[in-house]
Design goal:
The structure holds two protein chains of two kinds. By secondary structure, chain A is α+β, with helices and mostly antiparallel strands. Chain A has a single domain, classed as Folate-binding fold. Chain A contains three helices and six strands, in the order βββαβββαα. In chain A, the strands form two sheets. Chain A has a four-stranded antiparallel beta sheet, with helices on one face. A two-stranded antiparallel ribbon of chain A has the order 1-2. Chain B has two domains: about 80 residues, Gyrase A, domain 2, CATH 3.30.1360.120; about 80 residues, Heterotetrameric sarcosine oxidase (Alpha-Beta Plaits). Chain B is built from four helices and eleven strands. In chain B, a hairpin with a 2-residue loop joins β10 and β11. The chains are: A alpha+beta, B alpha+beta.
Chain lengths: ~110, ~190
């Protein structure tokens, strides 16, 4: 069971109040892209054992989308952050670096 | 004009550890927009008769009230028959603002759970910390009740009011009655 804090309404609740919507920070290739890029956008997803960045929605609460960084193995939630960004905040990345040294090599 | 009919025609259940009742037709207006905009705040206050509530709070005054739904949404409550007039007034005041106001009175159902064990009944169904020091009057919480989304608050100690979609009103009533069945006190709080 994940304990999630919504960055939009500030509620901390367990995961059944939320809904996961897959990997975050995917580049949306569109008109003019190659077949390979299109395939990557549509089908290729990471499946790491460890740090993973995901899109979530506060389904039964404020209804807002946000991002979450968590560990797929220990289920530790490193943090949540705004949906209006292309990449995780530096502060959160630094925290993950401290907790999981070397995670970027396998991500 | 036809008479308003609430989802369950004021169904009630009094045989359990808490009294469950459907509250009939309640006027509700959803207002979305930039909550920090002065013009929107003024229009909302005029419609609801109370100030704009803080994050996750509700303010009520008689039949009127206003609840914080999300960073860009407020729920204005009023008497059922006043909803259309208040809506027209809101829309006029917000004509030049990027905002949305809709009368959702007929899309919702409102329930009341009353009694010393009301907290327990709610706590059985919602994944929310309802300990007396954690959930108090004035707070407004959107969550789920068993399998459906609901929003609830405590107008006073030992009383919960909750809003759900009209289409799931029967489900919510049934699940509340099941959680309040006689002899089911947990006595946790």
């Amino acid at each position: 069971m994940l304990i999630v804090s919504c960055p939009c309404c500030g509620i901390t609740a367990e995961e059944t109040e939320f809904h996961a919507h897959g990997e975050a920070h995917i580049t949306r290739h569109t008109v003019g892209s190659t077949d390979d890029q299109m395939e990557t956008y549509l089908f290729m997803r990471k499946n790491p054992k460890g740090v993973h960045f995901e899109r979530w929605r506060h389904q039964n609460g404020c209804g807002k989308w946000f991002h979450m960084a968590r560990d797929t193995m220990t289920l530790e939630v490193f943090g949540t952050y705004s949906a209006q960004t292309y990449e995780p905040p530096e502060k959160l990345l630094a925290e993950i670096d401290a907790k999981r040294p070397g995670w970027r090599d396998t991500a | 004009m036809s008479d308003p009919v609430s989802a369950l025609k004021n169904a009630a259940y009094n045989a359990g550890i808490a009294e469950i009742s459907e509250l009939g037709a309640v006027g509700m207006i959803t207002l979305r927009g930039d909550l920090s905009a002065k013009v929107l705040q003024k229009a909302a206050v005029a419609a609801a008769g109370v100030n704009v509530p803080d994050q996750r709070q509700i303010l009520t005054e008689g039949q009127g009230g206003m609840a914080w739904m999300s960073p860009d949404e407020l729920l204005i409550m009023c008497a059922y028959e006043d909803a259309n007039a208040k809506l027209a007034d809101l829309q006029e005041k917000l004509a030049k603002t990027h905002a949305l106001a809709v009368n959702v009175s007929d899309a919702r159902a409102v329930f009341e759970v009353r009694g010393p064990d009301a907290r327990e009944v709610m706590a059985k169904l919602a994944p929310v910390d309802l300990a007396p020091d954690q959930f108090t009057t004035g707070m407004f919480r959107r969550s789920r009740l068993a399998q459906v989304p609901t929003a609830f608050w405590m107008p006073q100690e030992d009383t919960f009011r909750l809003i759900c979609f009209r289409s799931v009103a029967q489900y919510v009533f049934d699940v509340l009655c099941a959680a309040a069945q006689p002899g089911s006190e947990v006595e946790y709080f």
